[in-house]
Write a structure and sequence with these properties.
This protein is mainly beta and 376 residues long. It has helices at 6-17, 88-92, 267-272, and strands at 31-38, 44-52, 55-60, 65-72, 78-80, 101-102, 108-109, 113-116, 119-122, 131-132, 145-149, 155-162, 173-181, 186-195, 199-200, 204-205, 208-209, 221-224, 226-230, 243-244, 256-257, 276-281, 289-295, 301-307, 311-315, 338-343, 358-359, 365-375.
Length: 376
């Protein structure tokens, strides 16, 4: 009988004496869900936390809201760059749409009226003489159906079905909003709208940003890739014109401090109490293109906004008045945050020269907006 060489025999014995390999540690899910409280009718509301790399976003299915968005500064310090509240109860009180998805029609519709296919529609006038952000109970005040998506990056899909006639709008509108937190510190928002009847729709996110976390935003520098804007009247309804920004306080074609001309004597500035205007983006062919860049010199944070939408509403928190106390006890004073709401134009249902906001059955509308964060 042949015998095994001594060295082979020793290796076999050693192999048998080894412990079985330890199983790999369980992977931590990049999405966690927790209770955020209950509505007065008892309906439960959840909050989802998405983590990826150094970034974290918290989203509640009440209003499909961004509750917080934390990204690094130039020193690697992580900080929340959005306004909002710590509790659901605070969101149930009157607030200026902090972080919410607004619809069915974001922004203003003049006198709460429009005509579609020869039929007149009347909406709630919840902003002076005008309809604003979907009415008395817009998309910001409902509970969306949430679904966690699998993939390379954590993503949360939120769906709301708005019934025919809700808030005065025709057609059953299904809105699907997907938030994706990428590994390069970007928050991607995809929108998909479909209807069973001709309607109008303009859905956007109403996050308020402050790249240094607190204080005023006047030292933030902003560049908007828009050669024109839509001037407004006293009630902030566009007059139908698309006016060149050149030679006006609305020219942000190079990085300019937000506060540089915010108190200008220009009539448009006075109407808005600062900036509260729609900018006509130079790239408005429906392709994803860079629309805005914001730089905050203290923290070095940079936010770039890419969108497929034709416009962006630049709002400088002119109606914040110090009465609201938010996360970490922050008092939200006038001009302590800004908004960049990618959108179709305000009052488009009444302005045939604006990009149409009409949505037809069988012709789903899809759009994308990306908030990309970096430092320098």
């Amino acid at each position: 009988m042949r015998t095994l060489p001594l060295i082979v025999f020793a290796l076999l014995i050693a192999g048998c004496s080894q412990k079985p390999a330890e199983p790999p540690p369980p992977q931590v899910s990049p999405i966690t869900r927790a209770s955020f409280g209950n509505l007065p009718d008892g309906k439960e509301v959840d909050i989802y936390t998405l983590k990826n790399g150094q970034s974290e976003v918290r989203i509640t299915n009440y209003g499909a809201r961004i509750v917080s968005l934390s990204v690094p500064d130039k020193n690697g310090q992580i900080g929340d760059v959005t306004t909002g509240f710590d509790t659901l109860e605070e969101y149930l009180q009157e607030n200026p749409y902090f972080g919410a998805v607004v619809g069915r029609y974001g922004n203003r519709i003049a006198n709460g009226r429009f005509t579609l296919d020869g039929k007149n529609y009347t909406l709630a006038r919840n902003n002076g003489p005008n309809a604003l952000h979907g009415g008395e109970r817009g998309f910001d005040k409902v509970v969306w159906k949430a679904k966690e998506l699998s993939g390379n990056d954590p993503a949360l899909e939120l769906t709301y079905v708005s019934a025919d006639g809700e808030e005065g709008y025709p057609g059953t509108l299904t809105t699907v909003v997907t938030y994706t937190l990428t590994n390069n510190n970007a928050l991607k928002i995809d929108y998909k709208l479909s209807t069973d009847k001709l309607t109008v729709a303009n859905v956007t996110n109403h996050a308020y940003f402050n790249l240094k976390g607190s204080g005023d935003i006047l030292d933030h520098q902003i560049q908007i890739n828009a050669s024109r804007f839509t001037p407004v009247g006293a009630s902030l309804i566009p007059n139908g014109e698309m006016r060149p920004v050149k030679g006006t306080p609305f020219d942000f074609n190079v990085l300019t401090p937000i506060g540089a001309r915010i108190n200008d004597s220009d009539a448009q500035i006075k109407f808005g109490g600062g900036y509260d205007h729609n900018f006509v983006l130079d790239s408005s062919d429906g392709s994803l293109a860079k629309a805005v860049e914001v730089y905050e010199p203290t923290t070095g944070r940079v936010m770039e906004v890419f969108t497929t939408e034709p416009g962006v509403q630049f709002y400088t928190g002119n109606f914040l008045d110090g009465k609201l106390k938010g996360k970490r006890g922050t008092i939200y004073e006038k001009r302590s945050a800004f908004c960049l709401e990618t959108q179709h134009f305000p009052d488009s249902p009444n302005r045939k020269n604006f990009p149409t906001a009409e949505l037809h059955p069988g012709q789903d509308r899809q759009s994308t907006t990306i908030y990309q964060f970096s430092t320098r």
